[in-house]
Write a structure and sequence with these properties.
Chain A: Keywords: Lipid metabolism, Pyridoxal phosphate, Sphingolipid metabolism, Transferase. The complex is a heterodimer of chains A (489) and B (527). By secondary structure, chain A is an alpha/beta fold. Chain A is built from 15 helices and 13 strands. In chain A, the strands form 3 sheets. A 7-stranded mixed sheet of chain A has the order 3-9-8-7-6-4-5, with helices on both faces. A 3-stranded mixed sheet of chain A has the order 1-2-11. A 3-stranded antiparallel sheet of chain A has the order 10-13-12, covered by helices on one side. In chain A, helix 5 runs parallel beside helix 6 and helix 12 crosses helix 13. Chain B has 527 residues and is of the alpha/beta class. The chains are: A alpha/beta (489), B alpha/beta (527). At the A-B interface, strand 1, helix 3, helix 4, helix 5 and helix 6 of A face helix 3, helix 4, helix 5, helix 6 and helix 7 of B.
């Protein structure tokens, strides 16, 4: 967990205070100036009242150019960022036709399948010719093709479960599966930093939701004991079932879930475990099979394993893997399976081919090389950043590394300066992270070479000095025992 | 025998009389000024000696009390009010009463559960299994296609006529689409590897949004990465707790999920019934006169996915302007189908498209790609870029699908005869199907989704479904015609605020499409 130094906390609050009061002042002026103008809403209520979109109007719009940057090519290790300009002080941004070639440290391209791949792309184009770009119907109503069944079998084999079911979008997978599995009278215990799709799915299910402290199995045990003893709220009847939802790698912290302890707790208290491996499938583990392989957990212990294909497989869609009965049941009741368009056939083919490459079934060792390279790259990058004195979150082996910025003014400073030096980074602020803990998030890919990483490190180091985010003391060049060397973490 | 009298003091006088037989009667005469204190005399049997000591004790005590009342402040005069000693006692009593009133009521002491008790409870608790036991009906497997879902598909090695895919304009397998997809795949790879806010915005997305907005004539549009997530992300972005939504009973699951997630007050009106809608609007306006800050929406679909009815847009727009509601229209099945050039329901009814506030559509139907879009005014679209969860927290649409959408719209714009051909096919199909024995057409004759209902139902949903599925299987096996029976989620305990499965029964769904199947296949449909 991140602990913010006092001085930084004070300055950050101060900065936000200034922005807030300036924003209020501007709102006041706007109200005065618009006093006489007739309201063009004609009796309809405004879409956003007063302070609802204050943050968007007065804070986010000032730094709008740091987010949503369009690119003009594949999101590979190096890509083309479209240049944009504004004529009205960032209220609207227009794009030009010029592009800059930048190093990509922001896309989720863990195994390097983002651009056209020598094995996958020809097969994808074949499947396009054979099955066309879309099936135009739901899986249960004529949208199931040979590719879909093959895809589900290969996903199940890769993940290590008896059967799997595939959907067209990862977000929808979480939102639509949780309501099917649990309803009123059930309890969902989820990690405090879970993704928005899990929160939406939990809310849509109608079950009671409780939160446990991020990645703390002891607190999970406390919550479980308390909830089982108390029962349902107000009636105190026993719960129908309890599902504990955790993620493999948390995308904003970069740390890996403490899976063995959490599974032990779930087993002891007879709760079901739901693991969301959106970022970890393909990216961690000796053969890329995810958190279970990395931490040595038997896949039979996790009841429901969910994941997405967007990050490591360069495709789109999500899957759920579990026992045969579970998948059979989901095929019968899941609304996405019955109503939503099936996975696009070229996407399905890309996943099948990517899995073949990772497992080495295409006859080459590219897959194993990719998995090894991403591990080396992430560990190298992380240790170098820590040596330079940055505050980097996340565990060893995880390809996601957030660098803490804290102050709101450093967000656009870091982002724009990096772009000037042709490095594209992602900066995240409120509301995706807590107000004080703004950060820049780096995602390493297997397609980054050592030179790319070194260049990235140099640029980040320079700009880190310029912007002032080296919160820890940098390790001196001579790495032998020196007095007063600050112990990191 | 004797009697005595205590010294007079403000409350009254104590007079005692000794009677024969040793008893003493105490009488207290309260003064008329102080009706508060009446001490009634009590008879006490005393021995003479004790009687005397008690007497003297009592008279001493009374003397003390008298002294207390003679305390200087008791004789003081404050604000012209004579403070007699009695006021002091009254003040003391008032303080005592207040003190008692402010005491907390007596609660039984709570004993928290001990650790061993919690352990026992945890051991005793038996959860339900994750899924209910599987029945035979669950093991149904849909037929698997071995080719593209075009007008003719290959199932189990046989060539069948495909009436089950929503390929209205026949764009599946179109070479222009294939060319643009192939070019996009080679240039951009397959996935977009990021959400729209973090380098997942590719120039084809922006081009696609501009193209859609230009085609429909609206200021701006926004792309979503999956058809069904369009509605259930758009609705919670605009409707928050406290807002009012008037929705049709028969909207599809995506919309129902969105309505549930928005936590607004939802009023349903009867399926496609304008009178019921008007009544609902009237009732809401009457009850909420003061609510000018209340956002009010009407949610309808252009062609209902669950029943094939078409919403009468002209009447809805009239009602909306009357009562000041915003309209959210889902044009998934009507984009590319209705209207002379395929621009949807607004063209069909001749309503200017600016009057509809928010139009959403899934592109997985007429446009033969995947994903969805939402158009409206600039304010509406910009708002969604930051507050729509399915847009912000999810990876963006794969670029090849966006470029397929652009090409599909280009093809549609260049060839408006596709739309007229589709209309002719629909008319042909409906005509042919309307005199099929045992089944009747239950949808609007202009809808490309034709719903066939059993004329004589068995009054049991399960049996109806079984019968329809049997018909569908038979048609597939013997006549090589592929249709599907409508599927519904049967899990009643799904708590989406009671998912309204507008169950008027199950239907056989036949979807018309453009390159003509011709009357020969219509004849084949006779069971």
């Amino acid at each position: 967990m991140v602990t913010i130094p006092y001085l930084t906390a004070i300055t950050t609050y101060f900065s936000y205070g200034i922005y807030f009061s300036l924003g209020q002042l501007r709102d006041l002026f706007r109200k005065i100036i618009d006093w006489r103008k007739p309201d063009d809403l004609q009796g309809y209520a405004p879409i956003c009242l007063g302070l609802e979109d204050f943050y968007v109007r007065r804070l986010y719009l000032r730094i709008q150019d740091c987010f949503g940057r369009p690119i003009a090519g594949a999101p590979d290790a190096w890509f083309d960022v479209v240049e944009r300009y504004t004529t009205d002080n960032f209220k609207t941004i227009k794009r030009t036709s010029k592009t800059t070639r930048c190093l990509n440290l922001g896309s989720y391209n863990y195994l390097g399948f983002a651009a056209s791949d020598e094995y996958c792309t020809p097969r994808v184009i074949d499947s396009l010719k054979r099955f066309s770009a879309s099936t135009c119907s739901a899986r249960a109503a004529g949208g199931t093709t040979r590719l879909h069944t093959e895809l589900e079998e290969s996903v199940a084999k890769f993940v290590g479960k008896p059967a799997a079911i595939v959907f067209g979008m990862g977000y929808v997978t979480n939102s639509a599966i949780l309501p099917v599995l649990i309803g009123k009278g059930g309890l969902i215990i989820s990690d405090s930093l879970n993704h928005n799709s899990i929160v939406n799915g939990a809310r849509g299910s109608g079950a009671t939701i409780r939160v446990f402290l991020h990645n703390t199995p002891s607190h999970l045990e406390e919550v479980l004991r308390e909830q089982i003893a108390e029962g349902q709220p107000r009636t105190h009847r026993p719960w129908k079932k309890i599902i504990v939802v955790v993620e493999g790698i948390y995308s904003m912290e970069g740390d890996i879930c403490k899976l063995p302890e959490i599974i032990a707790v779930c087993k002891k208290y007879k709760a079901f475990a739901y693991l969301d491996e959106a970022h970890s499938i393909g990216a961690v583990g000796k053969t890329g099979r995810g958190v279970c392989e990395l931490l040595g957990v038997d896949t039979a212990d996790v009841d429901i394993m969910m994941g997405t294909f967007t990050k490591s497989f360069g495709s789109c869609g999500g899957y759920i893997a579990g026992s045969k009965e579970l998948i059979q049941y989901l095929k019968y009741t899941c609304p996405t399976h019955l109503y939503a368009t099936a996975v696009s056939p070229p996407c399905a083919q890309q996943i099948i081919s990517a899995i073949k490459v990772i497992l080495g079934e295409d006859g080459s060792s590219r897959g194993a090389q990719k998995v090894a390279r991403i591990r080396e790259n992430s560990n190298f990058f992380r240790s170098e950043l820590q040596k330079m004195g940055f505050e980097v979150l996340g565990d060893y082996d995880s390809p996601v590394m957030p660098i803490m910025l804290y102050n709101p003014a450093k967000i656009p400073a870091f982002s724009r300066e990096c772009l000037k030096q042709n490095v594209a980074v992602v900066t995240v602020a409120f509301p995706a992270t807590p107000l004080l803990l703004a950060r820049a998030r780096i995602c390493i890919s297997a397609s980054h070479t050592k030179e790319d990483l070194i260049k990235g490190l140099e640029v980040i180091s320079d700009i880190g000095d310029l912007v002032g985010i080296k919160y820890f003391q940098a390790e001196p060049k001579k790495r032998q025992q020196e007095e007063g060397r600050v112990k990191l973490n | 025998m004797g009697c005595g009298k205590s010294n007079a003091f403000p409350y009254g006088e104590l007079i005692w009389t000794h009677r024969k037989g040793g008893s003493t009667i105490f009488k207290f005469f309260a003064h008329r000024q102080n009706p508060l204190l009446w001490i009634y005399s009590s008879q006490v049997k005393l021995l003479d000696k004790m009687e005397f000591s008690v007497m003297s004790f009592l008279s001493n005590a009374l003397d003390w009390v008298r002294v207390a009342f003679d305390v200087p402040f008791a004789r003081a005069v404050v604000f012209g009010v004579h403070i007699g000693g009695h006021l002091v006692v009254e003040a003391l009593l008032v303080i005592v009463i207040l003190f008692l009133l402010l005491q907390k009521s007596y609660k039984l002491p709570q004993r928290p559960l001990s650790e061993t008790e919690i352990d026992e409870l945890c051991e005793d608790w038996v959860p339900d299994s994750l899924i209910p036991p599987l029945t035979e009906g669950i093991k149904y497997e849909p037929p698997i296609l071995d080719s593209a879902a075009g007008p003719h598909a290959i199932i189990n090695g046989k060539d069948v006529v495909n009436f089950a895919s929503a390929n209205y304009l026949g764009l599946i397998g179109h070479e222009k689409l294939h060319e643009s997809c192939t070019a996009a795949l080679e240039k951009y790879g397959l996935g977009s590897c990021g959400p729209r806010g973090f380098y997942g915005t590719i120039d084809v997305h922006l081009d696609c949004e501009e193209r859609i907005a230009k085609f429909l004539g609206t200021p701006d549009s926004i792309l979503y990465s999956y058809g069904i997530s369009t509605m259930f992300s758009a609705i919670p972005a605009f409707c928050k707790k406290g807002d009012i939504i008037v929705a049709d009973e028969g909207v599809h699951w995506g919309i129902q999920n969105g309505l549930y997630l928005s936590k607004s007050t939802i009023v349903y009106f009867k399926h496609n019934d304008m009178e019921s809608l008007e009544n609902a609007l009237e009732k809401i306006t009457r009850e909420n006169k003061r609510a000018t800050k209340l956002r009010r929406y009407i949610v309808v679909e252009a062609i209902y996915q669950n029943s094939g009815q078409i919403a009468p847009l002209n009447m809805i727009v009239k009602l909306k302007e009357n009562y000041r509601f915003r309209v959210l229209l889902d044009e998934s099945n009507s984009f590319g189908v209705l209207g002379d050039s395929g621009r949807g329901l607004s063209e069909h009814y001749g309503v200017p498209v600016e009057k509809i506030d928010i139009i959403t559509a899934a592109m997985g139907y007429a446009l033969a790609t995947d994903g969805g879009f939402c158009t409206g005014s600039v304010r509406v679209v910009d708002h969604q870029r930051l507050s729509s969860s399915g847009y912000v927290f999810s990876a963006s649409l794969p670029p090849y699908l966006a470029s397929a959408a652009i090409t599909a719209i280009d093809v549609l714009e260049e060839n408006p005869h596709l739309v007229t051909k589709l209309k002719q096919n629909i008319a042909l199909l409906v005509e042919g199907l309307s005199d099929v024995p045992g089944l009747s057409v239950a949808s609007n004759p202009q809808s490309p989704i034709v719903f066939l209902r059993l004329k004589h139902t068995t009054y049991s949903f399960k049996n109806d479904l079984q019968l329809l599925e049997d018909i569908a299987n038979l048609m597939l096996k013997e006549d090589s015609v592929f249709v599907v029976a409508s599927k519904r989620i049967v899990k009643e305990s799904c708590s989406f605020g009671a998912v309204r499965l507008h169950l008027t029964g199950y239907f056989l769904i036949v979807i018309a499409f453009c390159p003509a199947a011709g009357s020969s296949s219509v004849l084949q449909l006779l069971p």
